[in-house]
Each structure stands twice: as C-alpha cells, then as structure tokens.
Amino acid sequence: MTAPVNDPVIGAVWADVVGQPDAVETLTAATRSAAALIDGSGDASGMTHAWLFTGPPGSGRTVAARAFAATLQCTTDGIGCGQCRGCRTTFAGTHADVRVVVPEGLSISVAEMRALVQLAARRPASGRWQVVIIADADRLTEGAANALLKAVEEPPARTVFLLCAPSDHPDDVSVTIRSRCRTINLRTPSAESIAEVLQRRDGIEAELATWAASVSGGHVGRARRLATDDAARDRRASVLRIPLGLRRFADVFDCADALVKAAETDAAEVSKERDEAELDALRTAMGAGGTGKGTAAATRGAKGAEKELERRQKSRATRTQRDVLDLALVDLAGFYRDVLVTRSGSPAVLNHPDHAGQSASAAESWSPESTLARLEAVLACREALELNVKPRIAVEAMVTRLYRPM
Ligand SMILES: [Zn+2]
C-alpha cells in the first residue's frame, strides 16, 4: 500500500516513499513530537536525535530520510506539505539546516566527518532543526564512525542525525551507534506499489510500468531506469543471456569481457558529466587564467586542488563501477534463483518473470546441485568485489564457474 497522498494528516512529501505505511506512520508521529518539543507542549516521546533507516538497496532509505527532514522543516502545518519553502528547499538540497552526506569515494574520511559534526552543532538558522542525512552510513570508516558517535552520544538540542544503511547488522553500523538510534525498517516495496509510483510520478504508461516493476527486484530507482532508458534495458538483456549463452569455453572470456566493459561504460556515463562540472566549478573558484601579482602562487595552489579533485573523482568512479557491476550480478543471481524455484515447483514469484521460458529450460537440463553451484559462484564474485579484488579477475573466475560449475 502506498501512503494516501490526499490524507489530511499525512503530508505530500511522503508520496514517493513507496509501500512503507508503517514507517510513514512512525515518522509522522515523530514530527508531531518534534513540534511539541519546539513549542514546549504536548507529548515529545515520539522524537529522538538519531534515526537509522534500514532496508535493502532501492527500498528508498534516503527518500524516506529526506521526506522526514522536510516534515521537520515544514513551516506550513508541520506534516510535510510539500509546498512551503521549508519543504521545497529540503528537496532541492538548498535548505540551510539540512545536510546530505553521500560518501563520494569508498568512504567518508575522518576530517570530513569532524567538519560535518561541527556544522551540525550550530543552532539551526530556521529556528527549527539541524538535520544531517548520511546516505550510506555503512561506508563510514572506523575513524569517521567514531567522530560521528561522539555527536550522536551528546547531541546538540536541535540536531537530528538520519543514518541510512542496508541493515542494522554490526557489519553495516557499529553496535554503539546503533544503540543510540531509533530504527526505521523499510521493506522491499511490492511490484504493485512501484508500478503505481512510476505511473503517477514519472508518467510512465501502465504496461511498461508494470513490466519494469516486476523485474526490478523491488528497487524503485532501477524500475524507473528500466522503464525510461533503452540502454539499461539492453544491458539487463545481455546479462540475462549469459546463463544459456555459455556453450563453449571461449564464451567465458567474451561474457566476462562484456560484463566488465558494460559496467565501465555505464559508470563512465554517470561520472563524466558530474566530473566536468566539478572541475569547471573548481577552476572558476580558483580564478583560472588570471594574470598579475600572486598569479604564480595561485596557479600552484589551483594545480594542487585539481589533483586532489581528480583523486576523489577517480575513487568515486571506482565505487560507481563496482555498484553498477553489482547490479548486474544481482540480476544474474536472480536468474539462477529462478531456475531453483522453477525446478522445486515452488509458487514463489520469479525475479525475472519475463525470462520464465529460459529459467524453465535451464531447470530441465541442469541438476539442482549445479544450479546452486552457479548461484554460489555469483555470490562469491560479489563478495570478492566487496573485498576490492579487481573486477576483471573476479568476473572471469565467476564466469568460468558458471560454465563448468562442479
Ligand atoms: Zn511544508
């Protein structure tokens, strides 16, 4: 079920928090308590200074956190009207008291976290709340997590931390930080609720929206991409050709090469525009092309800053490439799960209902043991990438095992 958009008590900012009625209810109650705290009246027990949004990738952790931030900053009725300056600037990313931290490279540095904690300790300019959203709290380094812990343990009166992570497992968020947070657990949204939001918000026609939602694995952003981007559809199709396409040993290297190159191309597309814009902004800020006194020193400083920016962009590109490759691996794992599901005769919903014919034909010719071995090969590849094994090496090892599983 989607949050009813026209409900007078639930604000419009919740419209894109797909299929999460329980979370919306808790956070709406928290906003009422937050208002009570500011007024010094009523029950404030629903509000706290640190929240942990957990849920699988694509379930909308940051979308929910941002909607909550908007309701906290909403000046009209305090429920997130979506229209007032507080709501609009929160969504536009320009609200003076809302900071969204997205780890750009592989993690957030200690220095960045310290600077952030210092900013968060200021009094809110709006007189309401200082909100800090940390989009991937699971990518904090130990040092950064420690710097954050201090702030979460002794939060300034009007500061709220919203952390987002896949789960509250100690691998994702340290036990000490988790113990200071109230957890909002998001579930995988249903295909129906994703199809509904694609039609309503993105104006995608019903049939395409339903198809994209059905093959997205409950990932809202991925569903939108598949519905609107031909290249994304092509890449998914080429990934799903791999299982039945491995006929000769030579196919192993072609498939591995195609997977790695597709991830590189995809990541490069995502990065290129952003990288160039950042470099332009930096050059403008550094006053490139100036002449006169002090220019030489300024130029040396600018070169140093450019080098630093390039280093960060490279690190971020590596992360993007790994994320893109991981999505392809999730699709691939989904196919082998479908083969197992089909073989066992279980009525479970398929990951790739539009490839049911292929998974059925694989279920007939492969033993369950060999299918399971293939699935394990994909999962092992995901783990290897997480441990920083070079993509090409990890992917070649995986495809070799897909071709000859046991
Ligand atoms: Zn508002």
TrEMBL record:
<feature type="compositionally biased region" description="Basic and acidic residues">
    <location>
        <begin position="303"/>
        <end position="312"/>
    </location>
</feature>
<feature type="region of interest" description="Disordered">
    <location>
        <begin position="286"/>
        <end position="317"/>
    </location>
</feature>
<feature type="domain" description="AAA+ ATPase">
    <location>
        <begin position="47"/>
        <end position="189"/>
    </location>
</feature>
<dbReference type="GO" id="GO:0006261">
    <property type="term" value="P:DNA-templated DNA replication"/>
</dbReference>
<dbReference type="Pfam" id="PF13177">
    <property type="entry name" value="DNA_pol3_delta2"/>
</dbReference>
<dbReference type="InterPro" id="IPR004622">
    <property type="entry name" value="DNA_pol_HolB"/>
</dbReference>
<protein>
    <submittedName>
        <fullName>DNA polymerase-3 subunit delta</fullName>
    </submittedName>
</protein>
<dbReference type="InterPro" id="IPR050238">
    <property type="entry name" value="DNA_Rep/Repair_Clamp_Loader"/>
</dbReference>
<dbReference type="InterPro" id="IPR003593">
    <property type="entry name" value="AAA+_ATPase"/>
</dbReference>
<dbReference type="GO" id="GO:0008408">
    <property type="term" value="F:3'-5' exonuclease activity"/>
</dbReference>
<dbReference type="GO" id="GO:0003887">
    <property type="term" value="F:DNA-directed DNA polymerase activity"/>
</dbReference>
<dbReference type="InterPro" id="IPR027417">
    <property type="entry name" value="P-loop_NTPase"/>
</dbReference>
